[in-house]
Structures are given as C-alpha cells and as structure tokens.
Amino acid sequence: MNTVNVTVNLTMALTIGGLYAVGFYLLLQRSLMRIIIGIVIVGHAANMFLQLAGGPPGRSPIVGVSPAEEMTDPLPQAMALTAIVITFALTTFLLALAYRSSVLLGHDEVRDDVEDRRIRRQQQRIDEREEPDEPGADRKFEFGTDNDKEATR
Amino acid sequence: MTMLVALPILLPLLAAGLSLVLGRFATLQRLLGVVVFTANAVLAVVLLAEADKSGPVVLQLGGWDAPVGITLVADRLSALLMLISMVVMLAVLVYSIGQRITDYGRSTSSTAFHPMYLVLGAGVSMAYLTGDLFNLFVAFEIMLGASYVLITRRTTATRVRAGMTYTIVSLTSSLLFITMIALVYAATGTVNLADLSGKVEALPVGVQSAMALMMIVVFGIKSAMVPLHFWLPDSYPTAPAPVTAVFAGLLTKVGVYALIRTQTLVFDHGESWTLLLWFSVITMIIGALGAIAQNDLNRLLSFLLVSHIGYMLFGLALYDVTGLAGAILYVVHHITVQATLFLVSGLLTRHTGTVALRGMGGLAKLYPAIALLFAIPALNLAGIPPFSGFVAKLALLEAGAEVGTTMAYVATGAAVLTSFLTLYAMAKVWVFAFWGKSKPPHPDPDPTDELIIGTGSTSRTMVSATSALVVFGVLIAVFAGPLSEISTRAATDLLDGGPYRTAVLGEEAE
C-alpha cells in the first residue's frame, strides 16, 4: 500500500487537468452530441486520475514475478477498470437515448426546462401586449401548443 | 449470521436474471419480485435485530480482510433504512403490478420493468450495506443504471428530454464521484470507510476540506440539495406513478444516507457545521417556495421532496446525537410519506386525466377514499401531530434549540417556516383538487405512451397497496418511541465510530 507521498507526474497532471477543462466545457454546450462527448472526456480524465492516484509506475503486481517493493499498486487499476466498464456501458445507453431523442424531436438540441420556457412565454405575452405591431419579432423557436401541453401535464 | 449480509444484494440480482428469463410467464415474474422484496424486508429485520443486540454485522467478501478486500457492514442505521426501503419497494411493486393488470390484462408481461426494478433494489441494498467508498460508487451506478432505464422506458418526446437531463446530471455526478475516490486514494491509500476514518485525521486540513467538499457536491447532486436540485423537479414528474414514487422515496434518500455515513465516519467535524446549515436552510426554503408556485401536482410534490431533504441536512449539520437521531427518524418518515404521496397522485390522475391542479376539482365528493388516502400523508408531511412527520420534526427542532448557536436558531426557524409552507402547499392542493366544483375527466393527452391516465379505472390492488403504505406511515408514528430510541442508538454509533471500526478492522485496530 502506498502512503501519503504520491509524487505526481507533471505531464499527467496537466493532461488530466486539460481533459477535465475540455470535458466540462463541452458539457455546457447546447448540442446533445457535444454533451455526450464531454461526458466521455470527463470520464477519461477521471479514470486517468484514478491511475495517477496509484503512484508512480512499477513492475507488474504478480507474486513471484516481481519483488513486492517494486510492484505498482494494483488496486487503483482494478477500480479504474470497473469505472471504465461502467462509463462505457452508460455512454452506450446515452447514445441510444440521444438517437431516440433525435428521432422523436428531429434535432439534437437540449431544450430549456419547463420552468424556463414558462417564464419566457409569460414574458413574451407581456412583450406582445406592449408592442402589438410586431407580433413575435424575435421568435427563433416556435413555442406552440406542444409546449403548453407539456407544461400542464 | 454474517452470510446474511450478502443476501439482500445477491437475491435481487440473481432474481433479476431469472426475471428476464421468465419474461413470458407474467404471473411467475410478478410473484418472483414480490417474494424477493418480502425476503429482503425480513432479512433487514433480522439484521436490524442482530445489529442492535450485538453490534454491526460484518462480512469480508472472499475472505480478504478489511482494508484490502470488499467489506459489507450492516449496522443499526443501514439495517433500519434498508428495512423501510424494502417495505416501500414492495408496496410500490404491488401497486405497479395492479396498474399493469388493470391496463393490459393479467397475461401480458413487461420484459424490462421487473428485472430493472430488482436491479434497482439490489443497488439500494448495496448502497446501504457497503463498507467502502468504491463499492458505494458501484452501488450508485447499479441503482442509477436501473433508474435510467425505468425513467426512459417507452420513450415519448417529453420523457426522452426529461430522461436525458436526469441521465446526464447523474452521470456527471458519478464522474465527480470517481474523481473524489481518486483524490481520497491518492491522499490515504485506502477506500475502506472504517480505515479512512483513522487516516483522514492525519491529513492536512486543506486536503480534508477538499475531500469533504467533493463529497458534499457528489452526494448533494444525488440527494437534490439546493442549488444542485434543478434536475429533480424536471425529470421525476414525467415517469409513471410507481417509478416516480420509488425514485422520490428512495434514490435521494440513499444520497442523504451516503452523506450521513461519510461525514460522520470519515470526518470528525466535532461541532455543528455552519456551511451545511446554510445549505439546509436554502434547500428547505427554496424547495417549499418552488412547490407553492406549481400548478402541476407531481412537480409540486417534487419540489416538496427537495424542500424536505433540507430537514435531513439540518439534522446532519447540527452534528450531535439528537440532531443525527432526528435526521435518521426524518429519513425513515420521509421515504414512506413521499412514496405514498406519489402513489396517491397516480391514483388521482387516473381519474382526472391531468396533473394540472386547475384542471381538477370536487374530488373529495367523487372519490372520498382517495381523498382520505391523500389527506393522511399530506398532513403527515406537513408535520401535524400525531403523525410521524411531527415526531421527526419535533426531534430536529429540539436538537436545533439544544445546539443553540445563532446559525442553529436560524435553521430551526427556517424549519418551522418550511413546515408552514408545506402545509400551505398541501392546502392549495386540497382546495384546488378536492374541493370546489367537480370537473369532467380530461382525455389522455397521449394514449400511446405508458402513462395511462383519465380512464378512471383503478384496481383494488392499487388502492390497497397505497392504503398499506399510508397505514405503514401511521404505524411509524405509533412506534415512534422504540424508533426514536433505535435512531438515538444509531446516531450515538455514528458519532462514536468505534464499534464500526472495531467490527470492520478487527480488535487490534482500536
């Protein structure tokens, strides 16, 4: 078991930091595909961090092949393996869901939540009352009946 | 005896596989689910009795001893919560079987629901029983993986959007969980909770705070603590009533359990914790205000769920025996009552065809039985004596006054205010839905999806499952004395940590 003194490889640290940054940036995008790629990248970052937590590389941890003090810590690798399998499975599920979403909705844009849309509709109604000459001048998205149905369901 | 600890996880997992095979035999599949959850509830009773009598029951999987191997631990807290969870899951399963039979007849089976529900049960049990941080992550993934399928099954446009939000938010928090585990492992070289509790104290304060904060964020997302709650009212209401009920009852509470377990066992805060007190105040108030603004019954209940998570955080943040005992009592009460309310809402919408409060009216006259089934858990949630909500809230308020710092008084005040706001929200539901002029049922807006509403057909099985949960909620109040004693003992264990460590690591560790 390694102790508190884990020396961190600078290259690894920078790579992981970069991966987290890229991943979270992509997570904040509106396109579903980018969000999924973001999830995948953050997943990679987390798994590499788990590897890094095991300490510096050593020899393969098999009893009889290498002496105990030169072995790498196998525990984080086992954990990373489990985590990889889980993130892999869930990414597949997410992709299937994204496909279903694009079949049903015809696009892969993440929509605002119900609350936000309700507030925006209210604001729109107020705006329209104030400026009756330009009905819906700034309507990029159509907020038709299906949204109303969703909000009341 | 120790082998029993593995069964609550193994039984549902093995049964899930069997259930998949039994897909064609609907009755057998249903029977299997009911038998497994009954068995799990019985196991939980046995484990609770044993843990209460002679300390935590520990199983070292595969014979690998504690810090290296995987440890399963059933102490008072985990056995108690597992008991309540399994009873609620059993009742919800019976309800959903009743609903299925009413809608599609006795012989049609659902291939995905039963196996996934069993996997969910295995995940919940595992989260309660696991003794190490990484296994807690795996338990969460088993539980959430099943919940992703349950919430997006038979997708419509609304549900795919809501399911997407839910999946992505949960997945993000899971990735943060891995990050947190890596941080913990790098700092201490172990992920065993009992082992950690000894090693964390030696770390620099900065590292300790980073770990504690990461845990708050990870479990805060899972347990819908404000400001990390936004996904919950958006996704839960779209699922069918039984799925929402079990999610609302259990999933967030497992997050709270994980928070209680890690913050007491791994870290020793020593005194009441101002940061978490703030979070609890915000959670209580914002959740309750959000609930009042809603017109949709299920969204209203979801916001109340968020609000009442604040009570449990309040109890934890006080960080003394009375506070923690109150929090445990509150978790027990809230699992039951929240699941019941969502089931009643499911019964209601089958009659009204809408969840919009303004679309309902006069239901008390039309369906007095359902009105009664709603009124009892509603008053229970608001904390009206003599129900269990009152007992749990009283315990928390007493604890708040006992701690007596300014912040504790602020939080106590917020708790009282939230109780009133909850009552107001419930009164609003009552006035809109149950009083007034009766309105004709709305037609099902989307007859093709699984959410069949507005048909007015409810079966005796559904109503009796709901009634059983209502009665169970009342029983919690009846047995409040023994329950609060056992939660006090559980809270003492939590703050002491000694028995848990000794049981897991062996005698020489102390």
Automatic annotation (TrEMBL), chain B:
Locations listed in the record: Cell membrane; Membrane
Main location: membrane
Pfam families attached to this UniProt entry: Proton_antipo_M
TM segment ranges: 31-49, 80-98, 110-128, 134-151, 163-187, 207-232, 239-260, 272-293, 300-319, 325-348, 369-387, 407-427, 462-483
Keyword Cell membrane carried by entry: yes
InterPro entries: CPA3_Na-H_Antiporter_D, NADH_UbQ_OxRdtase, ND/Mrp_TM
Membrane topology label: Multi-pass membrane protein
NADH:quinone oxidoreductase/Mrp antiporter transmembrane domain residues: 131-418
Annotated keywords: Cell membrane, Membrane, Transmembrane, Transmembrane helix
Similarity-based family: Belongs to the CPA3 antiporters (TC 2.A.63) subunit D family.
Listed name of the protein: Multisubunit sodium/proton antiporter, MrpD subunit (TC 2.A.63.1)
Organism: Actinoalloteichus caeruleus DSM 43889
